[in-house]
Amino acid sequence: MAGHSGQKTRLLYLIDLLKKQTDEEHPLSATELCDRLRSAGISAERKAIYDDIAALEAFGYDIVLTRSPKPGYFLASRAFEAPEVYLLCDAVQAAGFITPKKTRELTNKLGGLLSEHQAKSWQRQISLQSRNKCDNEEIYYNIDIINRGISARRKIRLKYRRRYLGASRKIEAQEREMVVSPYALTWAEDHYYLVGNNAKYDNLLHLRLDRMRGVTMLEEPWRHFSEVSDYKTTFDIADYTQKSFHMFGGALSDIVLKCKAERLEQVIDRFSEHIFIRSFSGDYFTFSVKALLSEGLTGWLLQFGKDIEVLEPQALRYSLRERAMQLAALYEKE
């Protein structure tokens, strides 16, 4: 019985060794595996190692016997391959809503998915930039509570913080409490947002998670999104995010734009390839798309100057004209 227990323990230590200390460039021979197991207090012989590796392979582990760069075994497949771990770490470090502390914790956990040799090489490339990171350590707990609220279809209560310039020229913060029906979480414009409905209004609102404090789930059922949006059975956050600009809310409208052909990439980046091309002539093409009429849309269009012209609706043309006139007046001042 003791021998059987020891065999199971050896299997656990062996797979841990293969995960942590081997990769394609760093295989370990059966003798080396025996030595390392013995140093951990686990009795092992080469024949037992061969049997254990066969058992692990039968279970599904991808263990490869190689001759280069030296004879030995290594774990060929992992839950996440090295490029996938690097990609996830880059995303974590780029996310401004993740605090410096949580960024370090997450990147260390992700690094644990690599072999020790891969991790050492990867750590030399890390440069944590905390300058644009938020300082709200509640954000992880808030994400969990909000997701539970969405799943249970219940309202949440929260305090939302906004910054303003005080009389002493110091940046200060002001909090106000609100009750929200939560519909979806989305990462957009380098921030993490909750899309929901404030109980006092009949529209959708966007709230940044890094500005939330004291989130709690209430017993009160949420207000169904069909009452405040065009979605009836499912709140399609991907569709909604594509139609909104810089997470500004507004009325959904059919928009017709005349665009210089060389701006096609920016248009596709914004609206995807599913835009409806109405016409193409010379250096310009005309297309239509649905989007929310908002300050965000106006700002996005203004950056292209005369390269994109709004043909419809008239309300958006008027808004752009007013903004352009205000800018012109501002810069005409001596």
List the helices and strands and how they pair.
Elements: H1 2-21, H2 30-39, H3 46-59, E1 63-66, E2 72-75, H4 82-94, H5 100-111, H6 116-123, H7 139-152, E3 154-165, E4 171-188, E5 191-198, E6 205-208, E7 212-221, H8 237-243, E8 251-260, H9 264-271, E9 276-281, E10 284-293, H10 295-302, E11 308-312, H11 314-331
Antiparallel strand pairs: 1-2, 3-4, 3-7, 4-5, 5-6, 8-10, 8-11, 9-10
Descriptors:
40% helix; 11 strands; 11 helices; elongated; 334 residues; five-stranded antiparallel sheet; four-stranded antiparallel sheet; alpha+beta
SSE class: alpha+beta
Mean pLDDT: 87
Q: Give the CA-based shape.
A: elongated
Please tally the helical runs, counting DSSP H or I stretches of 4 or more residues: 11
Radius of gyration of CA atoms, rounded to a whole number: 28 Å
What is the terminal separation in angstroms?
Answer: 93 Å
Strand content: 25-35%
- The tally of strands reads 11
Task: Specify the oligomeric state.
Answer: single chain
Order of helices and strands: HHHEEHHHHEEEEEHEHEEHEH
List the uncertain runs: none
Strand order of the largest sheet: 6-5-4-3-7
Main pleated-sheet profile: 5 strands, antiparallel
The share of residues in helices is 25-40%
